[in-house]
Amino acid sequence: MISLLVRASFVAIAIGAPAAYAQDAAEPVIVVTGKGLDQTKSDPAYGSVEIDRARLTSEASGRIENILADVAGFQQFRRSDSRSANPSAQGATLRALGGNASSRTLLLLDSVPQADPFFGYIPFSAITPERLSSIRVTRGGGNGAFGAGAVAGTIELNSATRTDLPDASLSAFYGSDNARELSAGLTTDLGAGFISLSGRWDRGDGFFTAPAASRQPSDVRAAYDSWSSGLRAVTPLADGVEMQFRGLLFQDNRTLRFAGADSSSEGQDASIRIVSQGRWQIDALAYVQARNFTNIVISATSLRKTLDQRNTPSTGLGGKIEVRPPVGDAHPLRIGADVRLAEGELFEDAYSQVTGLVTARRNAGGHSKTFGVFAENDWNLGALTLTGGLRADRWTIRNGFFAERSANGAVIRDDNFADRANWETSARVGALYAPRDAFALRAAAYTGFRLPTLNELYRPFTVFPVATRANAALNVEKLRGVEAGLDLRPTNGISFGATLFYNRLNDAIANITIGPNLRQRGNVDAVVAKGLELSGEAVLGKIVLSGSYAYSDSKVRASGSASALNDLSPAQSPRHAANATVRWTPDARTVFSATARYVGAQFEDDLESNILPSTLTFDGFAQIPITRQVALTGRVENIFNEAVVTRKVDSSIDLGTPRILWIGLKFTME
After folding, report:
1. Burial per residue of 590-606, b for 16 or more beta-carbon CB atoms within 10 angstroms, e otherwise
2. What is residue 556's predicted lDDT score, i.e. its pLDDT?
């Protein structure tokens, strides 16, 4: 299917662009944007946050997940970034709705969901900031296309347009711990469209995740080695209509703490999108994803391999169509349908810590699908804008199984789980009152749901010494939430926003302790999160100041077998998070910036027996032109070498990124 998508794209480019759209002096020029339908006027009551390209290209780590941390309240399951975290722990969430390695936030790249079809994690190492033009973050329950799953919000990544991309670019960096980063891009006009090819490779010996005081001879550095390559092509099909193709190949290899504790993830993605900006606006999309994951678990006591998750192939298919009829500017209407299909299975072998021999071979997997229809409409009544949306989704979970055999092939377990299906409806309504440009009040209420991932349903896992069991009977998570806020723009270049929110995630999926070093995924009654979000920006000539703060008071509501969790804070959910960035651009190619990030204390586990202390880190970035095309760039991560605790189980501790110094050159040719 990927090859068919590629061929279709290039046939359209070759046929459609030069000949069919040759222009003469009397004909209008066809403009290709490479963008989707305008979202800036959609969802007016939900307080979205924008991250621009200037910020995307001036991050000290060069990694997209750290840029997303500019939106206070954004978090992954753990505090590690995509160089030292286990890939399957890279779930994205907002608003402290509970630690979960699967994403509760819908992350889209050019409208394509990016979550792994089996695990639900985001392949952050494959998403490079220089390929993007902007990011839009909307916290709270989502609606619209692919809204099923957006219980904590939606993150929209938009690819760089032709005006963002130079004809050629090349950058090379060398950093601490023998770290190397190389990226390149080529972009050229093709008829009335354009085509862009980009690639990035980075590797490093890594750092010791174990603190120096407790480090053992068996501890090794968290080495990483990853690459990704992307192709994007845009061509017009008619005046105001364009086709966009995007392809991505990536591979990521990491080692965590012990020699042999290796993990890998890889993917091949492709999508085709037709966008019509005419009187009838249409956005039609189809995509395919092929992913895989492997992971080896090493015992901290015997240093032997205890588990080899040797193969976890998965496939994601999906698409959407969104139509905006010409009903007038006072009543913009959006209607459409979308579908997502996921299938995958795991193959793993368990090993004896004593003999090192295989004790069991396991195979598990299943299929899931959501099909939804949606409609949203705004009513512009002068200073007052009312908005409302409704979704109806049919979901299915089927063909679930778990099989376990001994080393000699004897059957230990052979479970086939009942198929399940149901309808879910979700809705959101909001109001925006803006009597003048400098002031606006907004309020919203919403519902939503998230289907358990195949990983949560069928795959057990171990982060030694804690083992976590899967649960094929997990219920769907369902969100209810309200929020209210204000936006101020007292003068040009100055903006401030504040939002109060209350969210209740019923049947929240959590890792519930059921015995010593033993947990099982299960549904608690609810996770209730309420709090305050602040954001602001000041553009003072060539200096830009920006920052955000989130206070989240999050509690578990639990009964029955999980009653021990009642009124406790959910795991991996800090109460306070804040950041601030100052950027100075004395000219178009000279950039200096510094970022401070604070994350409050949070609990490692559901029983609050281990606490991760608060952290405050500082990063720096400087770019100075040497010639018209070459710039010298320096980056510093964690300037003061703050000890960032990412995992704590009794006396066993893992640390996050220490101080890393980078020096490099950037070449661009317009």
Report:
1. ebbbbbebbbbebbbbb
2. 94
The answer to whether the beta carbons of residues 346 and 362 sit under 8 Å apart is yes
Integer Cα distance of 366 and 362 in angstroms: 14
CATH number of residue 72's parent domain? 2.40.170.20
Report the DSSP pairing between strands 526-540 and 494-506. Answer: antiparallel
- State both tokens at 373: 């229809």
Q: What pLDDT was estimated at residue 1? A: 42
Q: How far is CA 118 from CA 78, 269, 484, 515, in A?
A: 19, 15, 35, 27
Q: Is the peptide bond before 465 cis (omega within 30 degrees of 0)?
A: yes
Which residues, including other chains, have CB under 8 Å from residue 77's CB and lie 6 or more apart? Answer: 89, 90, 91, 93, 99, 100, 101, 572
CB 427 within 8 A of CB 478: no
Do residues 171 and 199 touch, judged by C-beta distance below 8 A?
no
Q: How many CA atoms lie within 13 A of 82 on its CB side?
A: 27
Answer whether residue 362 is part of any domain: yes
- If one counts the domains in the chain, the total is 1
The rounded distance, in Å, linking the Cα atoms of 384 and 438 is 14
Candidates 53, 32, 29; CA nearest to 129 is 53
Distances from the Cα of 487 to the Cα of 186, 278, 436, 536, angstroms = 40, 32, 11, 9
Residues in the chain: 670
Report yes or no on 201 lying in a domain: no
> Helix count (H) and strand count (E) of the chain?
4, 39
Q: How far apart are the first and last CA of the chain?
A: 35
* Domain membership flag for residue 430: yes
User: pTM of the entire structure?
Assistant: 0.92
User: In this structure, what are the phi and psi dihedrals at residue 15, rounded to the nearest 5 degrees?
Assistant: -80, -40
Question: Among residues 214, 185, 183, 460, which one has the least CA distance to residue 348?
Answer: 460
- Quote the CA–CA distance of 401 and 250 in Å, as a whole number: 29
Query: How does DSSP assign 340-393, residue by residue?
Result: EEEEEEEEEEEE-TTT--EEEEEEEEEEEEEEEEEEEEEEEETTEEEEEEEEEE
**Residue 41's pLDDT is what?**
64
Report if residue 38 sits inside a domain.
yes
State how far Cα 638 lies from the chain centre.
Answer: 22
466-469 sheet: strands from edge to edge: 461-463, 466-469, 518-523, 509-515
| List of residues 6+ apart from 27 with CB closer than 8 A | none
Give the domain range for residue 148: 2-196+207-669
Cα(14)–Cα(224) distance, rounded to whole angstroms? 39
CA dihedral 503, 504, 507, 513 (to 10 degrees): 80
**Residues linked to residue 168 through DSSP beta bridges, in sequence order:** 186, 669
Q: HEC string of 133-172?
A: EEEEEEECCCCCCCCCCCCCEEEEEEECCCCCCCCEEEEE
CA dist., res. 623 & res. 625, Å (int): 7
- At residue 403's C-alpha, the angle toward residues 398 and 409, to 5°, is 150
Q: What is the pLDDT of residue 302?
A: 83
Which regions in the chain score pLDDT beneath 50? Answer: 1-26
CA 165 to chain CA mean position, Å: 23
What's the confidence (pLDDT) of residue 44? 77
CA-CA distance, 237 to 348, in Å (whole number)? Answer: 48
